[in-house]
Amino acid sequence: MTVKELAETDIFSPVTLPCGGREISGVYIGDLLSWVMGRASSGQAWITIMSNVNILAVASLADTSCIILAEGVTLEQEIIDTAREKEINILKSEKSIYDIAVFLSKII
Amino acid sequence: MSEGLTFHFNVDGEDFTSAGQASVMMKKNLRQLGLPPEIIRRVSVAMYEGEINMVIHAGGGVADVNVTENYVEIILTDSGPGIKDIEQAMQEGFSTATDSIRSLGFGAGMGLPNMKRYSDYMHIDSEVGKGTTITMRVNIN
Hints:
The complex is a heterodimer. By secondary structure, chain A is an alpha/beta fold. Chain A has helices at about 5, 35-40, 55-60, 75-85, 95-105, and strands spanning about 15, 25-30, 45-50, 65-70, 90. Chain A contains 5 helices and 5 strands, in the order H-E-E-H-E-H-E-H-E-H. Chain A has a 5-stranded mixed β-sheet with strand order 1-5-4-3-2. The relative contact order of chain A is 0.24. Chain B has a single domain, classed as Histidine kinase-like ATPase, C-terminal domain (Heat Shock Protein 90, 2-Layer Sandwich). Chain B has 5 helices and 5 strands; from the N terminus they run E-H-H-E-E-H-H-H-E-E. Classes of the chains: A alpha/beta, B alpha+beta.
C-alpha cells in the first residue's frame, strides 16, 4: 500500500504528501527520537505524538515512508513547510495510537 | 576515489531546531555518490546521533566526513565539557540530558549506543573540561 492510498482512508488526512507513491513496508511506533532512529526500518510508517521539528530529521535519516501524527496532534506551519521542502510525507489522525496500529495491521 | 572525498560541516550549538542539518546534507552527498542505501542509512543515523550530542552537550562543534573506497569515516570534534565516564555513557539508557531536552524526544540514553551499533569502528577521545573527539567508520565492503 502506498502512502497516498493510506491518506485516502477514512481515519487519516494528509498534512504533506510530496511522495505519495512511496510504498509502506510496515509500521513503527515511538516518541523517543533516538530510539526511533535506531530501530525504525526504511519504508515503515512511523506513528508518533511528537510534534517538534526534529521529527523531520529523524524521518528523513531513518528513511520512513511517512510520519503519522496520532491523537489529533498538529504541527506548526513552519514545520509543515519544511516537511514539504524535504519531501517528507506526513499524515494525521484523531484516533489513538492503538486504534491506528490496529487499523494498519488489517490493511497493510 | 583512492584518496577519498572530504566534507566539512559546522554544527551550530545554539539552534536546536536545525540540529541534524549536517547529517541530512551528508545523506544527500552519499546518495549522489551512489553508495548502497543501507550504508547511507547507517552513516546518517550514526552521524545524526553524534550531531545531536554535540548540540545538547557541547554547544556545537565540527563534523568531518571522509569517503574512501572502503569506508566512510566520520570525525566529530567539540570543545564541550568532555565525557567523565565513557563506559557509563556507552550504556543504553544512561543520559545526562535535561528535562527540556527530554521533552523534545531526546535524552533517552541511546545516542552513543546507536552510534556504536551503526558503525563498524568507533573511538572516543575525551578529556573533561577540554572536549571530545569521536571517530566512527562504516565499512562499504
